[in-house]
Amino acid sequence: MNGRTDSPMDVDEKRWRRRGLYALIVLLPLFIGVTAYESISTWWLSRDRLAQDVAINGSGDFGGSQWKLSKFRMVPVPAGKDIPEGAMGMLAEFEVQVQDADLAKNWRDCAISLESPDGRRWGATEAMRLPRSQARPCTATIYMSGAKSGSTVRVREAFLAPRDVADSLRVVVTLQPQQPRYLRFAQPPQLMQVNPPDNQK
Fold it and tell me: Are residues 17 and 104 part of one domain?
């Protein structure tokens, strides 16, 4: 007979190959499951899901600071700019009392936006030209304010939002270390004072 009999070494090698294949069959779904869980956990924690509501004229303890919305109003849109049709200019300004001066850590990925009742958001824009002020955008405050514990800094952001939802928008503050919590202010925007036409004066 020409049949070939495997040597003991060949038998051991086949046995280890089979064991390796079985281990791969078991471990591969486990690895995929762990990776998916980590990705889902990261995604879940990085979303703004839990609103910490702040009453009108109130303040919220957030990211080692006390945040108070001092101004929230509609403002004229700049002339000669590429402004979307039907957009309304809006301005939000905060007085923030710093308790922990490590803003680079506590305010990481600071973002201020406007939120509608159905959850849509509008981020800050640089298209709005604002008068000079000690107030700075949120990210600039982290590195330029020189804030110390106990000091108060002013944070200001401008927005463009659809005119038809402007009066329903609320200001929200997101800080990456605080997610999934975020700060949401109940204060509605102040309406612009529009002069009546001459024939109505």
Answer: no
For 64-86, how does the pLDDT look when each residue is reduced to its tens digit (9 = 90+)? 999 999 999 999 887 766 788 89
> Token pair for residue 91?
């301005």
Q: Are 86 and 140 part of one and the same domain? A: yes
User: What distance in Å separates the CA atoms of residue 131 and residue 149, rounded to the nearest whole number?
Assistant: 28
CATH number for 83: 2.60.40
Of residues 150 and 201, the one with the higher pLDDT is 150
**Contacts with 33 (C-beta within 8 Å, 6 or more apart), sequence order:** none
For 30, the token pair is 């486990």
- CA 184 to CA 58: how far, in whole Å? 11
Domain that holds residue 25: 8-45
| 27 and 57 both lie in a single domain | no
Please tell me the pTM assigned to this model. 0.71
Average confidence score pLDDT of the chain: 82
Q: Which residue has the tokens 């929230």?
A: 72
CA angle 97, 103, 106 (to 5 degrees): 95
